[in-house]
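Final report, section 2: Outcomes. Of the targets proposed, DNA-binding protein is the one most frequently requested by collaborating groups, and we therefore present its record in full.
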Amino acid sequence: MKSALEQGRTSITSLEKGSWTSRTYREAVLKAIHAVVPYDAYCFTTVDPQTLLSTGAVTEDGIEAIHDRLFINEYTEDDVHKYADLIRSNKPIALLQASIHAMPERSLRYRSILQPAGFRDELRAVLICDETCWGYLTLYRKADQPFFSEEEGQWIEEWTTSIARMLKRTSLSLMDEIKQGSPADPGLIMITDTFQLLSSNDSAQYWLTQLQRLELVGPDILPRPVRAVSSHLLSQTLSSAVSSELSAKSPSKVCIQLLDGRYLVLHASRMQQMTGPDQIAVRLEQAMPQDLLPLFAESHGLSVRERELLGYVLRSYSSKEIAAAMNISAYTVQDHLKSIFAKTSVYSRRELIWYFVSRFQLKDDRAV
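The predicted structure is given below as tokens.
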């Protein structure tokens, strides 16, 4: 008769032979784990391996109800077992009660979020394949259930490589799921320099309708984001007419979140006519999770070094750790941070993290 460890390993690894979408695979993993390691609630999140930002979660109502507080805690509060900390420490598994049972004050997440919601313990796993993280798995037990045991944690750790490998394999299907319902081709519209619509393709008409719904305007109104990127293009054109420093120009691009959670990128460029006045072309297409952080950084004019530093901030690095990673002084770190604060109109590292991270809650089911 198979041990619980062997039973779980067989159940998890056998899933690698199936044909799955990202969501159906995660649902199957949760079912297989529950047969060996019981839990009362869960959150199974895929992440962009470059930024560690969530690309959607399979979760349930008990956790969805405290989603916002967990999200804020993860990115803006000091606490134990942060996902980014687990990745850096090369310890893929963390048991909450095993760490805090003698000192519950060590975890704000436990005191102010989990315990009031009726949860007693939490098991966290970071899912790493080929030294790259593809997701987080978090299991919860209610107040009337036993703590997660060290043995159960070891079992989950045994299975993380297989799970991460499948998250990597199904990442392309996740992108297809996120794009479901969106046009396959990019939208393209042509407008005059006074913002009169001249022509558009079917994809552009679809995205214009989404923007008009967002702004609560009629079909005869050109949405503000279109006018905004076009105005930026015109201002850049005027500035280049009096200056030859074309390298200083920033792209006429904006990223907008629609009502259903999707992100739309608009990019304006000037079309030089052989005869007659020039026209403005605006390209509209859905942004993918891996595109969003660079887009937001670009839209705020962050330098290459500032973008690099922002990446470390989002991974919860301290100023000292950032200085070591970037081979700069702690004073230079603070100078970069002050510049980023000014460009994004925030006043602290906590506000900066929340400003960026709160925009990346893309959903493939219900996101955490």
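The mean pLDDT is 88.
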